[in-house]
Amino acid sequence: MPKNKRQQLEQWTTVVADTGDLTAIKALKPEDTTTNPSLLLAVANNENGRELLTRALQLAGAYQPENVDANILCDAFTAIVGTELLQLVPGLVSTEVDARESFDTRATIERARNLINIYRFLGADTSRVLIKIAATWEGIQAAKVLEAEGIRCNLTLIFHPLQAVAAAQAQAFLISPFVGRIFDWYQKRDQALTSDPGVEAVTHIYQRLKGMGSNTVIMGASFRTVEQIEALAGCDRLTISPALLEELAAQNTPLKRQLQPNNIEASTEEIVDEITFRYELNQCPMSSDLLADGIRRFVVDQQKLAALLEQHRCDALQDAEF
User: For the chain, which domains are there?
Assistant: First the structure.
């Protein structure tokens, strides 16, 4: 029986589920999974959400009984969901730091350490947890510190090659360049695109990092179509939505590997400094627009999650009084 496209893809690429939905992950059986504030909010609002919210309140009270603030509640919920995911996948789970800290290196480091400590409090294997951080200059510097401490990081919202190079030079374990969002940005401005700029961007980042001999894992993200996934077959990792994973599994036609590290010539990169990083991102409207928009979107959903947890806490206190 011929292999389906998902099985063919898995010969060269680690498949990661782009969801926090526990039921979907049980069915899909990916190697790894990744979450973000939007996905966590969806989990909080699904049929099992109330139980997880209650467990987060209990965890926060046990972990830090003297000061259960909004940040601890959010981090507790994040770790609760992450621990559930660790039981469902054999590989890695990415857990995102509060997006509101995206421009504060010190705060990002502190929240990342706290998340890892909560995972440890739960008895989780923290070697399988990646701390996910927006690839701002401040976020990359935070990842550099965390990686030196043994806390592996996933730098996300990558749109510009210099974000990828700076992350690799900071020894980040993994980066997530976004295919679909880049494609969407260009398509809004040119309905007659003859190529896929999102695929081209990730291909360029792959070639650039492999050429410089970086060990940083490249994980394409934010896919809109199976065709975009096929065009990046061979990338180290691809994080794919449940719907597209199912579509891949339903197709049996041959899939060709597109990216191979041994076909790339060695090259050197100058160290990316802060001035160059900020200037080059500013000069690229797509990158600066999408990075800012991605952080804003995650902040909105982080705030909604915090409000949901606070309301659940108030309801629990009210119930206890009766």
Answer: 5-317 (3.20.20.70)
